Amino acid sequence: MITRSVGPNRRRNDRIWNAVAWVVMLALALPAFWIIMTAFRPNSEVNTFPPVWIPQRLTLEAYANMFGLNPEVQQRVAVEAYLRNSLLASGISTIVAVSLGTLAGYAFARFRFRFHTGLFLGIMLSRAVPGVALSLPLFLLFNRAGLVNNVLGLALVYVAVNIPFTAWLMDGFFRQIPQELTESAYIDGCGYWSAFWRIELPLSLPGLATAAIFAFLAAWNEFQIVSVLARNNAAKTFPPGLFAFTEQFTVDWRGMAAMSVIMMVPAVIFVILVQRNLVSGLTFGAVKG
Amino acid sequence: MTINRPGKTKDEAPQQAARSNRLEAGTFPYMLILPSIAVILLVVGFPLLYSLYVSFTPYELLRPNSLNFTLGKALRNYEKLLNDAIFWRSLGNTIIFLAISVNLSYLLSLALSQLLARVTAGQSILRTLLMVPMMFAPILVGMQFRWFFNASVGLVNNFLYSLGLIQAQGQIAWLVDVPLGMFSIIVASVWMNIPVLTIILLAGTLSLPAETFEAAEVDGASGWQKFRFITFPLLAPFSYIALTIMSLDIARAFDIVRIMTDGGPAHRTEMLWTYITRLSIENTKFGLGSAMSWVTVSLSVLFTLYFFRQLVKARIVR
Questions:
Q1: N or C: which end of chain B has fewer CB within 10 A?
Q2: Nearest CB neighbour to A278, from listed B147, B199, B255
Q3: Which overall architecture, per CATH, does domain A79-287 show?
Q4: Cα(A279)–Cα(B241) distance, rounded to whole angstroms?
Q5: Tell me, what CATH number does B130's domain have?
Q6: In chain B, which residues have their Cβ closer than 8 Å to the Cβ of A138?
Q7: Which domain holds residue B268?
Q8: Pairing of strands A111-112, B23-24
Q9: So where are chain A's domains?
Q10: Res. B20: pLDDT tops 80
Q11: ipTM metric
C-alpha cells in the first residue's frame, strides 16, 4: 500500500524540483546571455525606449569600431595594448607563482617541520590583504624603483598575490597522493628532490593545471592594484581599460559589452577545462584533515 | 619509550601515528618554502610595513617634504579618522554590506546546493549554467549591474516598464536612492559569490553517506528534519571552506562598488575601500589613506583568521 502511493508522488515531486532548478539556474545565467547578445546588436536597438527585447538584426559593428576598422570612429580604446599587457602580466605571473607555490604546497603536504602551521597561516593571511591597501605603498615604492607603468613590475605583484592560493590548492592535491609512494622512492635511493620531481610532480599535473588556471584568471581579472600602478597604456590591462568606459560622459554600453566578451574568453575556456578538478581541489581538506 | 601509558591500547597507537604521518626532512621543506616567503615579504610584507610608517606621517604626494615622522604627532591620522563622520559612515556601510552580502550569499548557495543535489535530469547542463557568473571578472560584474540598474537605459527599469509596473522611463533611480543603491550593490555581489559557494556545498552534500539518510527515512524523518539534523551539521567543514575562500576574496567587492556607484552619491554607498581611494589617489593624502588602509587590513585579517580557525576545528571533529 505504502510503496504504491509513494511512487507516483515522488515522481511528481522530482518533476517539480527539476523545473524549479532549471528556472533558477537560467535566471542566474541570464545576465551573461544579455551581455553577449548586446555585443552583437546595432546601437539603435541597445539604446532605445521602449526597449527592444528580441534582436532584429545582428552585427559586428562594435568590434569594427573597437579595432579601428570603422573610419567614422575617431577615438577608440587601445584594445591591442590591453590585450598585450593582460597576456604578459597574467602569463608571466602564472608561470612563476605556480612554480613557487607548488614547491611550498608540497612542503606543507608532505613534511613535518617547525612553524608548519604558522608559516602556512602567514602565507594564507597575506592573501587577505585588500588590494587597495597594498596598492598605496606599492605605488610609492615602485615610483622610486621605476616600476610604475611597467608590466614586469605588475607581474611581480601578481606572483605574490597568487602564491597563497596555489599553495593551498597544491597542498590539497599532494595530500591525495599516497605517502607510501614517496617512502618507497626514498628506499630505492631517490633523494628528496628527485622523489618530488620524478614521482610526485607528474602525479599532481591535473592539480597543477587547476592552480595555473586560477592564478591566470586572478591576474587577468585584477583591478585594484593595476589601476594604481598603471597610469598609461604601457601597462594598463583589460580591467582598467574597461573602467575607462565609465569615465566618459555618455557610457558606450555596447562597446563595453563587446570588450567584456573578449575579456571573458579565457575564463570560458578555463571553466570548461577545469570543471571536474575544481571541486576536488577546493574541497579536499574537508574530507581528510 | 614503548611502555604502554594508561588509557592507551596497542590498537590506538598506529592510528595516532597515522594522523600526523608527515615526513621529517631536515632543511629540505624550508628550502621549498623559502622562495614563496621571500616574494611575499618583498611584495606584501615590506610595503605593508612601509605603509604603517607612512600612516604615522602627514604625507601628501604633492608635498614630498611631508613624509617625516614626528613622535608627538604620530597618531594624528588615526585621530583624524576617529573624528571623521564619513569614515564612520564608510565603516558602517562596509559592515552592513558584508553582513548582508555574506549571509545572503551563503543561505542562497545552501538552498541552491540542496536543490541541485536532488535534480534528476540535466545535472551537467545545470552545473555549467551555475558556473556562468564565474566567467565574469568582478569589474565586469560591476559594469553589467551598473548598466542593468541604470535608471534610463537599464534592463531592470525596462523590464518593469514592459510589465507595466512603472509608467515612465527612469522612474526608479536604483543606484542613487537610499537604500536602493546598497541593495543594487548587494545583488551584484551575491550574484558573483554564488557559484563557488554552491559548487563547494553541492560537492559536500553529494559526498555525505547515503546510509545515514536511509536510516533517517526508516525512522520517519521529514525532508526538513533530514536537512536540519543531518545535512547541515555534516556540511560544516564545507561551509567553512566556502566562507574562508570568500573571506579571502571579499575585497573583490571593491571593484563592484567602485564601478556601480563609486561610493556616491554624497557618500551614500561609501565603503572603506572607496574612501581609501578617494583620500589617497584622488586627494593625494597618502598618510591618511595609509592609516585607513591599516584599519582595513586589520579587519580583513581578523575576519579571515576567524573562519580559518573554525575550518581547522571543523576538520578535527570529523
A1: N
A2: B199
A3: Orthogonal Bundle (1.10)
A4: 12
A5: 1.10.3720.10
A6: 43, 47
A7: 86-317
A8: parallel
A9: 2-65, 79-287
A10: no
A11: 0.86
